[in-house]
Amino acid sequence: MRPAGTGFGSRAAGRGSGEIGIPKEKGLLQYLGLALSGAFLVLVLAVAVLVIALPLISGGAALTVLTNSMAPKFPPGTLIIIKPTPIADIRVGDVLTYQITSGDPAVISHRVITRSVSLEGETTFITKGDNNDLADPKPISELRVKGTLWYAIPYLGFVNNAVNGEARLLVTPIIAGLLFAYAVYTVISSIAGRRKKLAAAAAAAAAAAADAGGPDAQLPAALVEARAPGRSSSEQHEPEQLDPDLSH
């Protein structure tokens, strides 16, 4: 006979409690990793939409601010998205992106400070950098206008410069795909790990309960009743005898 609280029963109970405690910490780390990877995936997809998808759909372009001429609102490294804008809709105060020389791909983005319309109906603009003391020297003709500022994203211009042109169209889907695959793997491994831990905990609890109940714990109920102390098998099966004196 084993004393209560010793032997296999106590070891099983200890193992069960240990297995139940450790998975909680691992599960928390797994959920935290899943949340972080999911958030990063959403961020990458959002950047891809803002930098690639929307400009393509609208016919705009993503440009990087390289100088301090529009600081402090648009410091170097700011990514600006421009959109095509009808000349008639461009107003004083808009940030205008225009070609330095007509037909030259190099552009400048400065704020419109003057809008003029000639007798022939041609519209020209005078622009100035927010951080510049003087306005730009030459009026901007309609042919040099590329668009106006749509929205800006701080610091993302550095990434835009590092990954530009066709490389951007290739790298962004690859990164997004890898992050999505990692998120799926994390979800599947988390579910599988949790099932294993629950099964191990259940097995440990069952072993502890069986050992704590003694050798009769796993016997059928009828046999346990038959082995109850103070009663023999004959006492259980003999019919009860009535006292002859009481029958009258």
Blueprint (SSEs and pairs):
Elements: H1 8-58, E1 61-64, E2 79-83, E3 95-99, E4 107-117, E5 123-128, E6 145-153, H2 156-162, H3 166-212, H4 221-226, H5 233-237, H6 244-247
Antiparallel strand pairs: 1-2, 2-6, 3-4, 3-6, 4-5
Biased composition (Basic and acidic residues): 234-248
Enzyme class: hydrolase
GO molecular function: serine-type endopeptidase activity; signal peptidase activity
Structure description:
The chain has 248 residues and is α+β, with helices and mostly antiparallel strands. It has 2 domains: 24-56 and 164-229; 59-162, Umud Fragment, subunit A (Ribbon), CATH 2.10.109. 48% of the residues lie in helices and 16% in strands. It contains 6 helices and 6 strands, in the order H-E-E-E-E-E-E-H-H-H-H-H. Strands 1-2-6-3-4-5 form a 6-stranded antiparallel beta sheet, covered by helices on one side. Strand 4 (107-117) and strand 5 (123-128) form a beta hairpin. Helix 1 packs antiparallel against helix 3. The longest helix is centred in the first third of the chain and has 51 residues, at 8-58. The protein is rod-shaped, with a radius of gyration of 40 Å. Residues 1-22 have low confidence and may be disordered.
Average pLDDT value? 77
Order of strands in the sheet with the most strands?
1-2-6-3-4-5
Based on the structure given, which CATH architecture of the largest domain is correct?
A: Ribbon
Helix share bin? 40-55%
Q: Calculate the terminal CA-CA distance, rounded to whole Å.
A: 51 Å
Oligomer: single chain
Series of secondary-structure elements, N-terminal to C-terminal: HEEEEEEHHHHH
Q: Do you know the CATH topology of the largest domain?
A: Umud Fragment, subunit A
The shape, in one word, is rod-shaped
Please compute the radius of gyration using only Cα atoms: 40 Å
Which segments are poorly predicted (pLDDT under 50) over 5 or more consecutive residues?
A: 1-22
